[in-house]
Amino acid sequence: MKTVATVVSVAVLALSAPVVRAADKKVDFAKDIRPIFKKSCMKCHSLDPKKPKKHAAGKFRLDDRAAAMKGGRSGQAIIPGDATDSLLYRLLNGPVPRPAQAAGLDDEKDIPPMPKAKRGRKWKPLPAKEIATIKDWIDQGAIWPAK
């Protein structure tokens, strides 16, 4: 009988312990987000020092905090605290209808998903873990230190 009471006590303690979810883990821009941007986004969404007059794709930059928070040709891409309404997060999950203010800028009806598929190849999304990390970062306020 004592063993049953011990097992029940341990089970109650285990169930009452706080559960740590990935979304509860504080996302660090420098450690968690910048490497994803650098690996998968900045080739197209940054200024090229060799071609300073050339704009970043969609006039959206991820190499500069102020520019990223401002957004690009399709509007604000990062809405701190709201990943589901942030264009950046939505594009990581598939194409998004082009907003009215950007209509007529391209032949395509939708903004293609990101990272953009290589010519002649099928779109390949980022790994789910990276997308979840970006979502958590945006939901946590999209904290991006000055340097």
SSE topology sketch:
Layout: H1 2-16, H2 29-40, H3 65-70, H4 87-92, E1 96-97, E2 110-111, H5 128-139
Antiparallel strand pairs: 1-2
Helix pairs in contact: 2-5
Explain how this protein is built.
It is a single chain. This protein has 147 residues and is mainly alpha-helical. It has one domain (27-139). The protein has helices at 2-16, 29-40, 65-70, 87-92, 128-139; strands spanning 96-97, 110-111. Strands 1-2 form a two-stranded antiparallel ribbon. Helix 2 (29-40) crosses helix 5 (128-139). Residues 3-22 have low confidence and may be disordered.
Q: Tally of extended strands?
A: 2
What is the percentage of strand-forming residues?
Answer: under 5%
Task: State mean pLDDT (0 to 100 scale).
Answer: 83
> Biggest sheet, open or closed, and with what strands and sense?
2 strands, antiparallel
Spatial strand sequence of the major β-sheet:
1-2
- Label the overall shape: globular
Query: Number of DSSP helices?
Result: 5
Sum this structure up briefly.
With 147 residues, the protein is an all-alpha fold. It has helices spanning 2-16, 29-40, 65-70, 87-92, 128-139, and strands at 96-97, 110-111.
